Amino acid sequence: MRTTTTSLRTRSFDPLIFLWIVLAAALLFLVVNPLYQLVHTSLQEADTGDFTLMNYVAAYSRPRYLLAMWNSIRLGFTVTILCLAFAVPMAWAVSRTDMPCKGLVRVLVLGAFITPPYLGAIGWILLAGPNSGWINRIWMAATGAQEGLFDIYTFNGLAFNIAVYSFPYIFIFTSAALDMVSSEMEDAANILGAGILRTTMRITLPMVLPAIMGGAIITFLEAIALFGSPALIAIPARFNVVTTQLLQFFSQPIRAEVAAAYAVPLLLITVVLFGLQRWLVRRRGFVALTGKGGERRIMELGPWRFVMLGYSLFVLSLSVLLPYTVLSQAALAKAWGRGFGFDNLTLHNFTYLLFQHETAGQSVINSFTYAAAAACIAIVLGLSIAYIVSRKLLPFAGILSFLAMAPFVVPGIVLAIAFYAAYAPPPFTLYGTATILILAFATRFLPIGYVNADAAIRSINPEMEEAVRILGGGRLVAIRKVMAPLMKRSLIGAWLLVFIPATRELSSALFLYGPKTRTMSVMLMDMSEEGNFEHLAALGFLLLAATLVIVGLASALLGRDFMLRRERQ
Among 167, 315, 489, 565, which residue's CB has the most CB atoms within a 10 Å radius? Predict the structure, then answer.
């Protein structure tokens, strides 16, 4: 009897439990340890390592540090208001009206969505530099004015630049909600004599208000956590926001403890607002379910449909058409200030960067190599954790799900400081290496891999896996022979969704790179200080062109909306 009991116990023991534990430990290594070290470092005295609160005192006792925090909060609100004005009318026109050229508008919104904000900032520096920007030069030539019409190097210029690349978040949230709303209540309002404007303001938009607010919160968080655009615009304009102030803490002498203390409140604000956003979106509007199938009736705007199209194209020209045009001109120009002309065209900027510049060519290789490696790690780990959670292979599987999503609420610059605190000192001493960059990128975009893998696993009936095991195959055989082929398309899409933003990731890279590990995003920031806009635009155009090619191929393979599955970069 004892022998039989022992045999049953032996058969019930799954040796793969050690693999699941190792994968869970890898998740702790990538997510929990850096955040723990961030908080621990903020409470640690630099020389002795003793507990102290003086880092927080140093971080928040100087007026200029507090002013940077206030500037970030003010920037977040300003950007959010602008994005609401840009996105909500456009989303309403695309989803609920007979506005023409809706497909073109959606494509251009996607173009704004995939454009790195710091690359857009470079485009707007070329467009609206105080005296040399194209818009200002045309204005002065046309009117004889001594000064330009716009100055991008201002607080308002920064807010505008961020807004024209952040409004797609609100557009996506709002249009998705509007696509699910029935027209029944709107029809009732029209029968009672309400016009289109009154119906929209009193019925349609209130029904999707939670989605609008959810997108607005994401936009606010994006604005206060963004680094590239403020670094290009705010620093020359001589004012700081939180992210640029954090960079100054890493100038010599490096004050990592003060930087950690300064970053912790930003992390807390992000967690609270992200929780609020999730709660709002979970409500899915104020729409009541009826017993009938909901139908959407397109509103006929008459001549106003062309007004809405003009407004949409005007906004999208600010984020896509104008910046892309001026970046292309600068990248192909011998001297961008000489304007358009065949005698000013050249490919030298590209050949110089790829074959003659000391580090630019290597930065291209680094960007795509690190992004590919990070995407592989994020997908493998995300898939593994999703499988553990869905099959309840460990008793604390629910906690693993939370940890896999945790990097989603961590701003990139805070994550970079956390990785610096965790893996720069001994025994790891990974600062400046490719390893720390790859791990940081993989951690930053792990939630994308996890969410897509979890959705793919849930779409597969567990009975198919059980059938393989009944026929004698192990769990790994079932995963390799059954689940992997069925999930291949979803995992390819998830890999691309990690790879694309990782190629242009700036905030993490800028704090962790070394002399031999510069990426294209870091190189762009370095070149901006040199003021050579021809080479700067050419490198940015290479990054943008590569992104557009990848998105185009992925859209043909996976569907045109595959990028819109991602909620945040």
Answer: 167
